[in-house]
Write a structure and sequence with these properties.
The structure holds two protein chains of two kinds. By secondary structure, chain A is an alpha/beta fold. Chain A has 14 helices and nine strands. Helix content of chain A is about 40%, strand content about 15%. In chain A, the strands form two sheets. Chain A has a five-stranded parallel sheet with strand order 7-6-5-8-9. In chain A, helix 2 (about 60-70) crosses helix 11 and helix 5 packs across helix 6. The relative contact order of chain A is 0.17. Chain B has helices at about 75-85, 105-115, 140-145, 160-175, 185-190, 195-200, 210-225, 240-250, 260-265, 285-295, 310-315, 330-340, 350-355, 355-365, and strands at about 1-10, 15-25, 30-35, 45-50, 55, 60-65, 90-95, 120-125, 150, 180, 195, 205, 230, 255-260, 300-305, 375-385, 405-415, 420-425. In chain B, the strands form four sheets. In chain B, strands 1, 2, 3, 4, 5, 16, 17 and 18 form an eight-stranded mixed sheet that branches. A four-stranded parallel sheet of chain B has the order 6-7-8-9, sandwiched between helices. Chain B is of the alpha/beta class. In chain B, helix 2 links the parallel strand 7 and strand 8. Chain B folds into two domains: about 1-55 and about 375-425, Urease, subunit C, domain 1; about 60-365, Metal-dependent hydrolases (TIM Barrel), CATH 3.20.20. The chains are: A alpha/beta, B alpha/beta. The interface of A and B includes residues 90, 110, 131, 135 and 201 of A.
């Protein structure tokens, strides 16, 4: 199995086999997160350009950490510091970054399709770290990885997504990924946040919209919370009190879901608005695992796009061993090599 | 003298569809007769139209020539050369220039410029309100004296119902049609395409079909109130067409136009490519079917291009940031043949009507191919195979979603005031 795309722009076009491959590739990198020394030299000498044209803390740091743990250097461009304010076009900014010869561009932008647009004009791999209200592929992958770890599978689950669906790129990536594994979706929120068109964005995937949280939680295996976001809304919103009253996930409401239902949240959470602290910190919550898995998934993505096609299929953690026999490398290597997935790739 | 020989003359006004020779003398049609009738004629240039359609000159009710003010995107010269290449002999240019065409000195400038460098006739449309700002009525009477053929605040609707009413009243007294870009701007705020499954999937902000039809309903009601002539520009939604049908069935002077891109493409064709971004945006599959039905049954009066050039520097940006609008002049005839005539949705006679008698009626004029009429003639082929290469266009812009499309049928020659403005090699 070889990842057949040069870029990672969206999960929609990926097949179940390709998505499984990406998730499997993340496993050894998950192991690495558990070690006291986490740095590999796999991408040493490579440079990852991180261009965030929209404010982000978590995703930027996560990609930066992923690059660094692979041994790559990163260059950072943030919207506030960029030339965009001086009138430079997105494409010119991208060309300028490209001229500094990075090996991969990770970009976030407030315009849907921005990563797609830049990728059409650049030779280097582009990773979409969130484009407008379109997709957030690495988030979709890390959510799936988290669910698979806890549930043992991502097949045929009842997935409930709560909140502002209409402006959520996370929800779209979740639907496009989990939908390919037979998951059924229930979307829930105030009606203007749950457009009926969403039911048809992934033909073949059962998606329904409901407006009562109690109904939405019934029989759920997985509950994905979305942040109530103010920055991406163009229209009048409902009042915070109405939202809390109607849609806040609290312990009482959570009881309607299956007993072992998982609660995910892409963060940052608004404690006390969409979710109570009790649920956010409870045993069903996966919030911090998601963050840890985010680094692993992003390491896998960067590895596959930068080194993937130049290698013979060997996993970096395995292949890396003889290069620099330092303590941390060896340890990472050994542990990773014990992982069935990386062994499989090696043989 | 110019003799157009052996062509198939289609003239909807007289219901003519026959092989005929057409003799032009100076700026008028001198004679029309059966083939060979003018064989003995000595000093006439001959244009062999064997196998081609010869029709009265095509009129485009809706183009943006960008002059004055945005000459890096288009000029009266480049735009009319593009028009001639597309088979049009007259184009109506919208007033959203810089400055806005809201006074008679700009009307005169446009007409002077057209006389000097225009490849086709230019019939200017003046702004309805000062600066198209929707506050005060523009100097419409003075512009009419200078030569405008209609008023419009195109690019946006006339801002309020009250002002629309006043403009309609005034224009009724002046004998001018009010051309309306119907859009409820609050419903459309921030939108970059039509709202639907595709916009939801792509995460692009959509405007509902109602953003158009709500405004058409307003305007139709006001046309009834005032008795004015209302022409709905670039109509794209079934709901809007239903409003126009209602108006027509109640005897109101309400007409509408449809663009080739709206009867060819739909929202599902949008893929973050700004060449597919225009306003009104590409509509739904059902809307497209309704438009085609309206083009066939007479509910739609004209095909107009909404030719909207934007230089590459403006247009080649993220979809969200790109300005609305695409080129249309050079592909209109070919798309109409491809989508409507070849697929037997409409007859050739009806097609010619939609480009001649239809738009002329909107403007309150006649259009026919007959002795004594202006020598404005459009000659096209229904079979000529060609590839549209936007880089060959005399337009200064390149924003066409049809670049590289292979067509069957093309404009072959355009005659304006007895002179050849374009001839395909």
């Amino acid at each position: 199995m070889i990842y057949r795309f040069r870029d990672l722009l969206a999960l929609e076009p990926l097949s179940a086999a390709e998505l499984t491959f990406l998730l499997d590739q993340s496993k050894p990198f998950q192991e690495i997160q558990r070690h006291p020394l986490k740095k590999l030299a796999t991408l040493r000498g490579k440079t990852v350009a991180l261009a965030f044209f929209e404010t982000s803390t978590r995703t930027r740091i996560s990609f930066g950490t992923a690059a660094s743990r692979l041994g790559a250097d990163s260059m950072n461009l943030q919207a506030e510091a960029s030339s965009l304010k001086k009138g430079e076009t997105l494409l010119d900014t991208a060309f300028n970054l490209n001229a500094m010869k990075p090996d991969c561009l990770v970009m976030r932008h407030s315009a849907s399709g921005a990563a797609d647009y830049v990728a059409r004009h650049l030779d280097m791999p582009v990773v979409n770290a969130g484009d407008g209200t379109h997709e957030h592929p690495s988030q979709g992958l890390l959510d799936a990885l988290t669910i698979r770890d806890r549930k043992g599978t991502i097949e045929n689950l009842n997935v409930t997504i709560l909140g502002d669906l209409s402006h959520s790129r996370v929800a779209r990536s979740n639907i496009h990924l989990l939908g390919k594994f037979g998951c059924r979706f229930t979307l829930c929120g105030p009606a203007m946040w749950v457009p009926h068109e969403l039911e048809k964005i992934a033909p073949g995937t059962p998606i329904r919209s409901v407006y009562k949280i109690e109904e939405a939680l019934e029989d759920a295996d997985v509950i994905i919370m979305l942040r109530v976001q103010t920055e991406r809304q163009h229209e009048p919103s409902i009042s915070a009190n109405d939202y809390i009253h109607g849609y806040q996930l609290n312990a009482e409401r959570l009881k309607r879901a299956k007993p072992n239902a998982l609660v995910l949240h892409p963060g940052p959470m608004n404690r006390g608005i969409e979710i109570t602290p009790e649920v956010a910190d409870g045993p069903q919550s996966c919030v911090l695992e998601q963050v840890t898995n985010g680094v692993a998934v992003r390491m896998a993505i960067l590895y596959l796009l930068i080194a993937g096609d130049s290698e013979d299929g060997a996993h970096p953690a395995v292949r890396q061993a003889p290069a620099t026999p330092t303590a941390h490398n060896r340890r990472s290597t050994d542990d990773a090599a014990q992982h069935p997935v990386s062994k499989g790739k090696d043989s | 003298m110019l003799l157009i020989k052996s062509g198939r003359v289609i003239d909807p006004a007289s219901k003519t569809d026959a092989l005929m020779d057409v003799l032009l003398d100076g700026q008028v049609v001198k004679e029309v007769g059966e083939p060979g009738r003018f064989a003995g004629l000595k000093d006439a240039d001959i244009l062999d139209a064997d196998g081609m359609i010869v029709a009265p000159g095509f009129i485009d009710l809706h183009v943006h020539l960008r002059e004055p003010g945005q000459e890096s995107s288009e000029s009266i010269e480049s735009g009319t050369r593009s028009a001639a290449r597309g088979g049009f002999t007259a184009v109506c240019c919208m007033p959203n220039t810089r400055p806005v065409h809201d006074n008679a000195s700009i009307t005169r400038f446009i007409l002077d410029q057209a006389r000097m460098v225009g490849a086709t006739r230019v019939w200017p449309i003046g702004a309805a309100s000062v600066g198209s700002q929707g506050e005060a009525i523009a100097e419409i009477a003075a512009m009419k004296e200078a030569g405008i053929v209609a008023v419009s605040d195109d690019g946006k609707p006339i801002a309020t119902a009250r002002l629309t009413r006043q403009v309609m009243d005034y224009c009724r007294s002046l004998g001018l049609p009010v051309i309306e870009h119907s859009e409820d701007v609050s419903l459309a705020a921030g939108a970059v395409m039509r709202e639907g499954v595709t916009s939801t999937r792509l995460g692009l902000r959509g405007m509902p079909a109602a953003a158009e039809s709500v405004c058409v309903a307003r305007d139709v009601q006001l046309a009834q109130l005032t008795g004015a002539r209302l022409h709905v520009a670039h109509l794209s939604a079934k709901g809007s067409l239903d409003q126009v049908r209602w108006a027509k069935s109640h005897g109101l002077s309400v007409t509408c136009e449809v663009t080739p891109h709206h009867f060819t493409l739909i929202d599902e064709d949008v893929q973050y490519d700004s060449r597919f971004k225009m306003n009104p945006p590409l509509a739904s599959r059902e809307d497209r079917h309704a438009l085609i039905a309206g083009l066939a049954d007479g509910a739609v009066d004209a095909i107009a291009t909404d030719h909207a050039p934007h230089e590459p520097a403006l247009k080649d940006v993220e979809f969200d940031r790109a300005p609305f609008g695409i080129l249309g002049l050079e592909t209109a005839i070919a798309l109409t043949l491809e989508q409507l005539v070849h697929l037997k949705k409409i007859s050739l006679q009806r097609m010619v009507e939609l480009f001649t008698v239809g738009p002329a009626r909107v403007l309150g004029i006649e259009r026919r191919l007959a002795v004594g009429q202006p020598a404005d003639i459009t000659i096209f082929s229904t079979t000529h195979e060609w590839t549209y290469n936007v880089n060959d266009s005399p337009s200064k812009s390149r924003n066409s979603p049809f670049d590289g499309r292979i067509f069957k049928g093309a404009p072959m020659a355009t005659i304006v005031a007895g002179k050849l403005a374009f001839r395909r090699n």
